[in-house]
Design goal:
binds ligand LZUJQKHR, binds NADPH dihydro-nicotinamide-adenine-dinucleotide phosphate, single chain, Dihydrodipicolinate Reductase, domain 2, 28% strand, 240 residues, alpha/beta, Rossmann fold
């Protein structure tokens, strides 16, 4: 386990993406974290950018030593970075959504040897929204529950990971949610959980207007996870 006084060396997986770029920009403002490697699927156009070495996923074995990996890629990218983290005994924070059941099982298996934290949404607002949704579902057992999510038109998975996670909280409260997805323009991420009863309805809405909220949450999680024992963690574990 990493010593708390050290600067935590971070590998960013999915570095060329929308989230990867936000993470690298915000990482540069943190004194306790330092980016030491950036990995993407394709060969990097430049080997080194602002002193940071870039690698293609096929070159993963050559990355320098790191204390925690942060992955915002696609489901088919998970296996390689998870394998490297297990090989090197290093924690993994992942925000990648749309994982298959086998991807989830791979995370569980890795968590027997390294700390692993996966969250479909790293914003504080959505973390709180989950609690509100479960409570509303518990109180409104006979009402219909529907989840509508809107994202930018490049997003590949639907329903979003956040919608499914909110739906799981609604189910814990006794609801049976249905889902609807919109893909349009450059919407960062919007989720509405609607409870509809006879003559009235409640809408619980979260709107993200900047990817920085997700990136900040993931960096916070990485700094925390670097000091944890092996196991599978959720964002809620950080608040205890
Ligand atoms: N949990 C959360 O809070 C949030 C989660 N997300 C999720 O994060 C993920 C990334 O989103 P976003 O940044 O918008 O996506 P982008 O498409 O912008 O970026 C994807 C990144 O992953 C890389 N990549 C893709 N496939 C692989 C692979 N097989 N192996 C290694 N690297 C790969 C891409 O490399 P290349 O450019 O070379 O193709 C790119 O760097 C999505 O699953 C999204 O749903 C997004 C926002 C918030
Ligand atoms: O792909 C995105 O952009 C986002 N994905 C996450 C999800 O699937 O819920 C989180 C956020 O809504 C943005």
């Amino acid at each position: 386990m990493k010593q708390s006084s050290d600067v935590t060396r971070v590998l960013i997986h999915g570095a060329s993406g929308r989230m990867g770029q936000a993470l690298l920009r915000l990482l540069a403002t943190r004194e306790d974290l330092r980016a030491v490697a950036a990995v993407s699927r394709s060969k990097p156009a430049q080997r080194v950018v602002d002193g940071l070495p870039y690698f293609a996923v096929t070159e993963l074995h050559g990355v320098p030593a790191f204390d925690v990996a942060i992955d915002f890629s696609l489901p088919d990218g998970l296996e390689a970075i998870l394998g490297l983290c297990v090989e090197r005994g290093v924690p993994l924070v992942s925000g990648t959504t749309g994982l298959s059941a086998s991807g989830e099982r791979a995370l569980d298996a890795a968590a027997t040897t390294v700390p692993v934290l996966l969250a479909a949404n790293f914003s504080l607002g959505v973390t709180v929204l989950g609690d509100l949704v479960e409570r509303a579902a518990r109180l409104l057992q006979t009402w219909d529950c529907d989840i509508v999510e809107s994202h930018h038109k490049h997003k590949l998975d639907a329903p979003s990971g956040t919608a499914l996670a909110l739906g799981a909280r609604a189910e814990q409260g006794g609801a049976q949610p249905s889902y609807a997805s919109l893909r349009a323009g450059d919407i960062v991420g919007e989720h509405t959980v609607q409870f509809a009863g006879p003559g009235e309805r409640i809408e619980l809405v979260h709107r993200a207007t900047s990817r920085d909220v997700f990136a900040r949450g993931a960096l916070h999680a990485a700094a925390w996870l670097a000091g944890q024992a092996p196991g599978r963690y959720q964002l809620r574990d950080m608040l205890r």
